[in-house]
Every structure is written in C-alpha cells, then in structure tokens.
Amino acid sequence: xxxxELAEQVEVNVQTIRYYERMQLLVPAGRTDGxxxxxxxxxxxxxxxxKRAQTLGFTLKEISALxxxxxxxxxxxxRVSDRTETKIREIEAKIADLGRLKDALVGLKAGCASRNGxxxxxxxxxxQ
Length: 128
Description:
By secondary structure, the protein is mainly α. It starts with a helix and ends with a helix. A two-stranded antiparallel ribbon has the order 1-2. Helix 1 (3-10) crosses helix 3 and helix 5 (77-113) crosses helix 6. It has helices spanning 3-10, 14-22, 42-55, 60-72, 77-113, 120-127; strands spanning 30-31, 37-38.
C-alpha cells in the first residue's frame, strides 16, 4: 500500500508516517519504480502500536526501546514490565506535581476573591 493509504487506514497524516520512518520507529518502506513508498501488511500494526504506546504516555524514544525489545528478545516480558513500572512512577510523580499546582492555584484564586480591586495575588505571584 502507498503512504496515503496507510495514513488513512490508521487515521494519521502522511507526515506522521514519514516522521516515524525518520525516527526509525517504522521500517522504511520499499519504493516503486516511480519512487512511491510501498508498505507491507505489518505497517498498520506497527503504527497502531506506536499510537497506543503514546496514548499510554510513552515517549517516542521509549517506544523505540519497546520495539527493540519486541524484535530482539524472546523473554522481553520482564524488561517491558520494568519499563512500564518506571513509566507508572513517572506518572505518579506528575500527578503529585499537578496536585501541588492545583492547590497553589486554588489558594491564589481564594485570595483574589477576598480583594476589591488591584492586581490581586494571582498577577502578583506571576510577577515574582
């Protein structure tokens, strides 16, 4: 299939497919005599894998490592589990950071509600 057909099938744009090739996440396609990229039956599965992994919070670099594990190791479950555990810890840290940010904003907003005029604590905090 051609690049446009692949992009349509997996619901991404053509530039995404080209980018995945440049990042070596997607095996470069063969070329027709006319220079068009041709993709095999495995390409849609690979692109869907990348998109699902991104949805779960994995970076393209991490996805590249996951793809390498899948391609080179018959006992990759433990390694993938370790990488997943690392990602879980990162997400938990982000959640904690977001909670602190929310608390800070709630406090600033409460301070603003008690004032009559002036810049208020929100703008003052952003100036600091």
